[in-house]
Structure formats: C-alpha cells, structure tokens
Amino acid sequence: MSEDEVKAYHAIITELEAPVIAGEQNIQEGEWLLIVNHEYYIPRDRLRSFLEKKNFSNPDKIIDALVNKGFLVMLPCSKDNCPGFRSLHMDILVRSSQITTLHGNPPYLLSYKFAITRLKVPIKEDRMIIPSVNNPLWNELQSAILYFFNNNRRLADVYANILKKYLSRRGTGLDGFQAYVLRKMLSSDKSTYAIVAPTGSGKTEIYLFYSLAMVMKWRLLENDRRKKILLVYPRKALTVDQAYRIIELLSIANDELAHAKYQITFGIRDGDTPLGITANQSRDTRLVKIGELFRGVACPHCGKGLLAYESINSVICKYCNKKFDFIKTVRRTVAQADIVATNPWALETRLLDSAAEDVGARTLSDIALAVFDEAHEYTGVSGGILATLLDVLRGISDQKDVNLVFSSATIPDPRDFIVKLSGDDSCEIFNFNNEVAGGRLQIKGERLVILAHFMMNPRYSWNTYCQLWSVLMAFLSYAYKLRGLPQPQSILFINNIKELRRAKSGYIENLRLGEPKDHLIDSLDPLDPYCYYHYLPINSAKQIRERALRGELFNELKDLVVEIHSEVPRESREKVAARLRGGEGLVALSTSSLELGVDYDGVGFVLNSGLDNPITLVQRIGRGGRGDKTMRTVLGIVLARALPTEMLKTYEESFMKAVATMSISGYKLFITKDNPQVIKRGILIESMAKLAKKGKDTYASGASKGPIRDSETLQSFIKYILGEIL
C-alpha cells in the first residue's frame, strides 16, 4: 500500500464525498453534518480530475489500485449509465444510515449525522531512526543507552543490536517520539513515568524496550538475580495480544545474549494459568495437555502457526516447530520468571497468597519495575484500589524503590491523574499530542476518522439494528473473500452480555429467514442504500443471488459473527483472536474485551451501541484504522439508543464536540482513594500481604491452606490480621 494511495483515499473522502453527502454544506473537520444525500456517486472523470488538481502524478493508476484493493466501490449502473464510485467507508456510512427490515420502509434511525477528523499517527516515513545507523536522534539515544549501562560499551551495543533486529523484523525503525521518550527514561533518575500517546503510536515498544534494558542491567551488570518486572494489563485479551510482542522481543534478546549464558524469561499469571501440564487429557481443569494452544498466541518466528504448551518451561509452534524455552507456563514456574504479566484483579489475589511455589507476596516483594498499560482504566473506586495496591507493593518490597510506568492513549490531565494514582508528585509525563502541538515533534502520518452519530427511532429496537448491521458487514466480508480481496473486519461493542447474545442469536435468526436475499434483488439500483449486491464479483453476482434466494448462504455467513466477552470459554476466545489475526473478515460482538490496546490491523469499522463517555468511545473507535490494511481509515458509528438519558446527551455540546473531534481535553479522571471502603480494604490487604510474605497461611489458595472451612480457623486468622494492623 503506497502512501500516495492512502493520501488520495483520504482526500477523496474529505474533499469529494463528504460535501456531496452533506448536501454541499461547508465542511469543517470536527463538526457534525447531516447525511442528506445517500444516493450519490463520483464519476471516474471527476475522480481523475480531482486527483490531478491535488498533484497526484498518476491518477488513473491510483484509482485502479484503490478499486483493485476494494477501497473504491464501483457502482455498476449509475443514473447517467456510466460507472460511478464511492469510497468503501463512505458507502458503508450511507447504507448504515438507512438500515431497515423491508425495502421501502423508513430507516430504523431518527437522525443521522457524520463528522470527519484526522489524528496524527507515526507511519513508516516517520520511523526512520535505525539503531547503530548514524543519525542525530539515534546518537543522542545511543549516549543515553551507554550512560544507562554505566559506560559498558559491550552491553550497550548488544542492547542496541536487539532493538535493531526487532525493528528490522517489523520493517520499521523508531520515530522521534519513541526515541525521545526512551532516551529520557534511560537517562533519568525519576521513579515514575507516564507515556500518553494515541493508539498505534508505539507506546508498547517504548515500555518494552525500557523493561528489557532494566532486566539486562540487573542480571548482566549488577549480577542481581532477584529483581523482577510486573506488566499489568486490565484485560486478558490485551495480555494475550501483548504476549506476542514480548515473546518476539525476548526471542531476539536471548539469541543475542547467548554469549552471556543467560535467558530472560517470561510468564503470565492470571486465572487461566494452569497448575500443571499432563501428557494425557485430564478432568482437572487446572491442568493442560501437552499440545494445547498457549492462549492463542501466534508464533513470532513464522507468523503462521500458533504456540502450544510443550513443558512447564517452554512452548512450541504447531506450524514451524520453533521452540521457545524461556516461557514459563505453569504457576510454579511463572513465579521464577524475570517478567510476569498479570491483571489488577490477579495482582490483588497474588498479594494475599503465601504459596511458596506460585506468584505470591514473596515473589511480588522482588518487583522493581511495574508497568500499567491502559492506565486510564483505573478511575473511581478501581483507581483507589490500584493506588492502594501500589502502596502495599511498596510496603512489602525488598527493593530500594519500585519504579512505575503508566501508558495510555486517553488521559485528559495526565499529571493530576498519575500523581494521584502513583502517589509520586515528581513523576515525568511524556505527552505525544503536546510534543506535536508544540512543534517539537514532526509526524507525517495521519489516521482518518469518520464519526457517525445515529439516533434510534423509538419505534424500533436498537438490538435489531445491530443484528441487521452485522448482516451488512458479514456479507461485505463474504463478498470480498469471493473477490480475492482482504476482508474488512468490524467490531460491534455491546456492554451487556445478555444483549450481546441476543444480537448474535438475532443475527442467526435473520440468516435463517433468508437475509440478505432481499438486498440482492437485481431490480435494485446500486445507489439504493438497501442494495448490497454491488459488493459481489460481477461474474458471479447472479449465481450468488440465486443461492441466497434458495437459502444457501446460511452456512457461509453464520460463523462470520463471533462473540468476545468474559463468558466465552478461553479456547473459543483464543480461536477467535487467531482468526482475527489471520485476516478473516469477522464481525466481533464484544463487551469491553477488545476496547483496549488490542491490535487487529484489519478492523476498519466500529459500531458502539450506546453513548458511553468520550474516553471509552475514543478507545473503542481507536481499535480501527490502525494500519495500511484499512488505509488508516476507520468508520466509527455511535448509536444513541431510544433512552431518555442518551437522547438528552445528544444535546450536550461538550460531549458531542468531544466525540466529533476524538478529543478528551476538558475531561477529568477521578480516583477515589479516600473512600472509607477503599481504606478498609487497603488495611486488610496490607496486613494479609505482610503475613503472606512471612510465609504464614493466608488461605488465599489451596497452596496456602485455603479455603477456611471452620470458625476456629477463621478466628485464629483474624487474630493474625489484627496483630499486623495493630
């Protein structure tokens, strides 16, 4: 995908299509516009002349490329009997605005608006800082690396080479923001850092590179074998997604460190971490069988297979047989890992556990660096609890200090929030948008965000709308697969699991009733929003139409809509994640599981049912348009349900402006640390963590004599707790 194609696609949408759809209204980015023309098209001659005026050197070549890749949709028969075109994203926008059950009926929506905004994101042209290649920014970073490793040139060179190989495998380098932040962190004596940057801007690499430097310094320079790193992710799906990058980085690092005869090890400790591994199938759900998938993580070596459990200390790729013998896979070996990934709920539980052969208080007393991704999640009472857990972590620590790193795309007032969360008023904040706005950071790349605000007609069900939208998006993916094109992926966020399942079952029922056969009738004009057949290959449209009329598309469409939420079995979640990573054109019905940090670069369409707060909406819509596979373009639909609170919110100017601009400035994140219940909880956790560190039975797990089964044991345990408190 060339940068010219991306720029041309963005220009076609913003300068050609948007004014036409809005009825030639004056187009201002970040302003809501009514959708008044949903039967438009752009003739090829107009596309060509437009691109010529925009100084694109070969307009016809760009048009053909966009058509061949499915981003320009050709409408076979337009009003003046010549082919017309639309961008894929705007075509879906106008058809989504007119969804209805029966052709000729009014749409399910009461009102439909759209807005256009652009977000700065680094692209390949921005990421040109290659380690070990002479460049002023690299030279500055190299000096910081050497300083960090106490002028040990050999270790600094090994570290730089690891970074170079990791980035080379991804066909990229560092951008100015990444190089700047990593340089500052490596040369700073601060204890707390916050990286605040948009989705897709490389935050993960920054804190992983920093974590790697810390481990290398402890083990190879200071000969300290105890210090550990804790990576805390608020969702299991995010932990699994990030595990791929961690394993990829450590695989390269361990190859480079072979001369030092030391391996950096990694493990995940949460509720899905098995107790052990067995050669045969076991009824004990705490055990996994050799060969079972390791959380659906893809192989970073070949990129084709999935990793599987091989032993308590290793996983293996089921496709290329590459062995990763630095992955600790069961509870007792994860406790030995240099880097442990977990979630905040597991962290609290682990702090209470005195188990000798598991991640417990004694293991956590060795944490010297804790990283919290998606830090904006910890607000209100949950933020107060996390702040309390950090106090407990420091209280039981055997280290001089516990360094903290927070990462997020959506913290409105970072300093205020991070100070309250960390308790460190000298924290250092790195803010991407501030660097860009201040002219200190030059970024060439842009992501185009098309926002849609749809309000449901009270006569119709918002859930039924979601079902019919799923039919549209699933059929789009199916049609593109038939054409041999990359299949668009979509995410539909529904907060309530019951309603989500209702949407899935409704989708299946709609297929059983024949959907989308009525949308494929050849008498429909392709400009009619009810028409879907224009997505199909021209030479097989008639055949597919006939199959649809016979009800034969059911089996091909039924599995294209999938569920992702906490009640989906782990194995099923892993398979869905693998299908998404493999590029399959799925419509994922998700609660908040896919909201944070998960990278599926084929997602170009996001529908959020309900008017969540702007921070949540920015995160969710930010799941789309993350790379060239989507032309760095996302259509984010916000569906206002026919509820008084949501209808009133439509008239809240600050809310609507925040959504239209994808900006959260002016909002605040609150942390409730002084809540009496949070304080009492903190006192109990602290006292139990101290008992656990001493090796006393805390009954937090079977390995620490839990659960408590009689009143005598309970009374005795309460006395121990009171003894610690008093």
Would you mind describing this structure in some detail?
Helix 1 crosses helix 3 (59-68), helix 5 runs parallel beside helix 7 and helix 24 (676-693) packs across helix 25. The termini are far apart. 41% of the residues lie in helices and 17% in strands. The strands form five sheets. Strands 1-5-20-25-24-21-23-22 form an eight-stranded mixed β-sheet, with helices on both faces. Strands 15-8-16-7-17-18-6-19 form an eight-stranded parallel β-sheet, sandwiched between helices. A four-stranded antiparallel β-sheet has the order 11-12-13-14. The relative contact order is 0.12. With 726 residues, the protein is of the alpha/beta class. Among the domains are: 3-121 and 445-661, Rossmann fold; 276-326, no CATH class; 682-725, no CATH class.
Outline the secondary-structure elements:
Layout (H helix, E strand, L loop, with lengths): L2 H19 L11 E2 L7 E2 H10 L5 H10 L3 E4 L8 E4 H10 L11 E12 L15 H13 L4 H17 L6 H12 L4 E5 L6 H19 L6 E5 L3 H21 L9 E3 L7 E3 L8 E3 L3 E6 L7 E6 L2 E4 L5 E2 L2 E2 L2 H4 L4 E4 L1 H8 L9 H4 L2 E7 L6 H17 L6 E6 L5 H9 L5 E4 H6 L8 E11 L5 H21 L6 E5 L3 H16 L28 H9 L4 H4 L3 E4 L5 H12 L5 E4 L12 E7 L4 H8 L11 E8 L3 H6 L3 H9 L14 H18 L17 H15 L1
Parallel strand pairs: 6-18, 6-19, 7-16, 7-17, 8-15, 8-16, 9-10, 17-18, 20-25, 21-23, 21-24, 22-23, 24-25
Antiparallel strand pairs: 1-5, 2-4, 3-4, 5-20, 11-12, 12-13, 13-14
Notable traits:
single chain, about 725 residues, Rossmann fold, eight-stranded parallel β-sheet, about 15% strand
